[in-house]
Write a structure and sequence with these properties.
Blueprint: E1 2-10, H1 14-24, E2 30-33, E3 49-51, H2 53-56, E4 60-61, H3 62-75, E5 79-81, E6 85-89, E7 94-99, E8 102-113, E9 117-119, H4 122-125, E10 135-137, H5 138-146, E11 155-159, H6 163-174, E12 178-183, H7 193-200, E13 207-208, E14 211-217, E15 224-229, E16 242-245, E17 248-251, E18 255-257, H8 260-265, E19 289-291, H9 302-321, E20 332-337, E21 341-345, E22 348-350, E23 355-362, E24 366-375, E25 378-388, E26 394-399, E27 409-413
Parallel strand pairs: 1-2, 1-8, 2-5, 8-19, 10-17, 11-12, 11-17, 12-13, 20-27
Antiparallel strand pairs: 3-4, 6-7, 7-8, 9-18, 14-15, 15-16, 20-22, 21-23, 23-26, 24-25, 24-27
Helix pairs in contact: 1-3, 1-9, 5-6, 6-7
């Protein structure tokens, strides 16, 4: 079985839904492929609010946010293929798809990658100890409570202060569990400040900064964890160990973009983000292949992932319907992270672009800082940042007309 579409979107989360809707509104024939039984991705288990303020101007829960885009996709008659896993992608956009009862191939003139991300596990952290039950990623615990109606434990320690871990600390408290501590190896929290306030401080849940778990006790079920303090280099400080007796350990220690398909297709990846290198139109190093959402870089808000998806979907449709309109050009303006910046996306802009929207993360938290854009080491744009934190993406629009010619841009925060 072989089907041909103008645009194929892989992933039905916020970025994929937005990309499919935007591509269809450009009159492209669109296929949306999702491996789960329902559209929405991770949003379906995020029953808390805090979504939609940027995309819709109102506060929504995760399922409500997903439903807005899913309804838009269905109303635009996008062809939807759920319970379908893309197991192969070639550079000429041949997709190998697998379903519970079939395996087939389809092709497209352009492809949007929106596969999202996955959680880091205890195994990746190499924490010593046995392998008892009671160790979960924060996302798995969220699914168990919100969708499967299962309480994973009664006395809980959360390792990592990522947003999902913080939200689960509050959710477990609501369900009657006791959250004994949140342990963070960095000297500052990894989640949004609003989640620190609403999920920990409002419920008197202790947060241990510059600490980590070095041992898990228990053979059949978790019985406790050993926590140790860390010095400025991240090394354990002898004599600071202490035991927390618990029956559950949740790991909220970062997300990894799902870029296996991108790698197989030959996409050039960025070691800083774990995602593809893209231009201002979200096209990767392969013409016609676009990337957006958490598979491109990890977002702190689903709104940004969705708005990014709309741009990628719109540009993918224009590429498919009129290749000359978005064909790659040698005149590219490289964009690089400079002092105080961990990464910046996109990685380059075309010379005919008037304004470039940049997403970046800073290296360290701070206040009253200045964001500078340098063109060949000369300042061409600046913006004052009242407060910055590594957990919060900084978004800025830079007018490229001020750069003059086709220089190399460097983004700094000082």
């Amino acid at each position: 079985m072989t089907c041909t579409y103008d645009v194929a979107v892989i992933g039905g989360g916020p970025a994929g839904l937005a990309a499919a809707a935007a591509a269809r509104e450009e009159d492209a024939r669109v296929c949306l492929i999702e491996r789960n039984t329902e559209l929405g991705g991770i949003l379906n288990q995020c029953i808390h609010d805090g979504f939609g303020l940027h995309a819709f101007g109102q506060v929504l829960t995760g399922p409500e946010f997903a439903d807005r885009y899913a309804t838009r996709v269905r109303n635009n008659e996008v062809e939807i293929r759920t319970e379908t896993l893309v197991v192969g992608l070639t550079a000429d956009f041949k997709l190998t798809c697998s379903t519970p009862g079939n395996r087939y191939r389809l092709s497209a003139l352009a492809v949007v990658l929106a596969m999202g991300c996955r959680e880091r596990t205890r195994a990746m952290l190499r924490i010593p100890g046995h392998r008892p039950s009671g160790v979960y990623t924060a996302g798995t615990a969220q699914y168990l409570i919100n969708e499967a109606n299962i309480l994973p434990g009664r006395r809980v320690v959360v390792l990592g202060s990522g947003d999902v871990g913080l939200i689960m600390a509050r959710r477990l408290t609501w369900e009657g569990a006791e959250v004994l501590a949140v342990i963070e190896k960095l000297p500052y929290p990894s989640g949004l400040q609003r989640n620190i306030t609403q999920c920990l401080e409002d419920y008197d849940i202790p947060l241990y900064l510059s600490h980590t778990v070095i041992d898990v006790h228990g053979r059949d079920r978790v019985q406790g964890v050993t926590v140790v303090g860390l010095d400025g280099e991240g090394k354990a400080i002898p004599g600071t160990e202490f035991l927390i007796e618990c029956d559950t350990l949740l790991c909220s220690v970062g997300l990894i973009p799902e870029n296996e398909l991108s790698y197989r297709a030959g996409v050039e990846l960025d070691s800083r983000t774990g995602g593809a290198k893209v231009g201002g139109d979200y096209m990767t190093s392969i013409p016609g292949l676009f990337s957006c959402g958490n598979v491109l870089h990890i977002h702190d808000l689903a709104d940004w992932a969705a708005l990014e998806g709309e741009e990628a979907g719109r540009n993918a449709a224009r590429y498919a319907l009129s290749t000359d309109a978005l064909s790659p050009t040698p005149a590219r303006i490289p964009v690089e992270p400079g002092t105080g910046v961990r990464y910046v996306v996109p990685h380059f802009a075309h010379s005919d672009t008037e304004t470039l929207r940049l997403f970046l993360r800073v290296m360290e938290p701070g206040r009253d800082r200045e964001l500078l854009v340098l063109a060949d080491e000369h300042e061409v744009f600046s913006k004052r940042l009242v407060r910055t934190a590594p957990a919060e993406i900084v978004q800025v629009e830079v007018p490229l007309s001020a750069t003059g010619g086709n220089p190399r841009l460097k983004v700094c925060v000082k």
